[in-house]
Specification:
disordered C terminus, six-stranded antiparallel beta barrel, lipopolysaccharide transport protein A fold, 18 strands, 56% strand, 2 domains, 1 helix
Length: 290
């Protein structure tokens, strides 16, 4: 989960650079100047089976048919790639949005992102990868060697806020552990190796954690990457084999594979304590509480 969340920011940056460089290259080829301040000196290769068109009235340059944009070690592929530009001062133009439509694949050295549609807005620095059919699970996903993040609706990377949001049956898998919720929000921080690392993940609605021995359910939760621990709140339920425990809070050590269930306490109006259903033939459960 750590590497995946951090790398999606690189995807967003790559899209911005590819958009600026690609449109700058194409426009210069047709004798119209475009500003391309972020492009640097690295070349961008644009390939499309059905051709590349410049729609001046719509201010769009579009590549059709198995379109590919490659710059360095980042490649963006889609049925159609569209770069939207606008006029700025002194007759120059600038790219403000890149849209990838149909069978979108964004490839980096160690991760690959998949979606039906990808939109990168340069003004807000937000990348949105979305599905055309949310009823089909996992159509939006980022896959790495050590794990994957999937979502049925969309995945957003807010570059300026260093935040990744996965919506719709969002699911993060790593080393046999699964964190699932309606919405997962991952916050990144500066790291020594890749420039960014995962700080924490907040989970909202229908939260579930699967480990080798337990399934834990809750209304909301927070996962801390540094300690590999999670705190779950709300209607918490832990199942282990045939045994089930219910409470108001659970503290989970995902690295050690242990959990602690806590009751609501005297300060809670419900007054609920830890409750359990233990089967003689089931595996022993863990519990502690007020």
């Amino acid at each position: 989960m750590t590497a995946i969340a951090g790398r999606l920011g690189a995807f967003a940056c790559a899209l911005a650079v590819i958009a600026s460089a690609a449109v700058g290259h194409l426009a210069h080829a047709q004798t119209t100047p475009f500003a391309s301040g972020t492009a640097g000196d690295l070349p961008v290769e644009i390939l499309a089976e059905d051709g590349i068109e410049w729609l001046q009235s719509e201010q769009v340059i579009r590549a059709h048919g198995n379109a590919r944009a490659v710059r360095g070690d980042i490649e963006v592929k889609a049925d159609t790639l569209s770069a939207h530009y606008r006029e700025v001062a002194e007759g120059d133009s600038e790219v403000w949005r890149l849209v990838a439509s149909g069978n979108v694949v964004i490839t980096a050295p160690s991760e690959t992102a998949y979606a039906d549609r990808g939109v990168y807005d340069l003004d807000s620095a937000i990348l949105i990868l979305s599905s055309d059919d949310p009823s089909q699970p996992g159509r939006v996903r980022v896959v790495a060697e050590n794990g994957r993040v999937t979502a049925d609706e969309q995945m957003e990377f807010w570059e300026l806020e260093d935040m990744l949001v996965a919506r719709g049956n969002a699911r993060a898998e790593q080393e046999g552990r699964i964190l699932r919720a309606d919405v997962l929000v991952a916050y990144l921080t500066e790291g020594s190796a890749d420039g960014q690392r995962l700080d924490r993940v907040e989970a909202f609605d229908n939260v579930a954690i699967n480990t080798a021995d337990e399934r834990i359910f809750a209304d909301r939760g927070v996962y801390l990457a540094e300690t590999e621990t999670a705190s779950l709140l709300g209607a918490v339920r832990i199942t282990r084999g045939l045994n089930q425990l219910n409470g108001c809070r659970a503290d989970v050590d995902m690295k050690a594979g242990t959990s602690q269930l806590i009751g609501c306490g005297d300060g809670d109006p419900s007054g609920r304590q830890v409750q359990g259903l233990i089967h003689p033939d089931g595996q022993p459960g863990r519990r502690s509480g007020n």
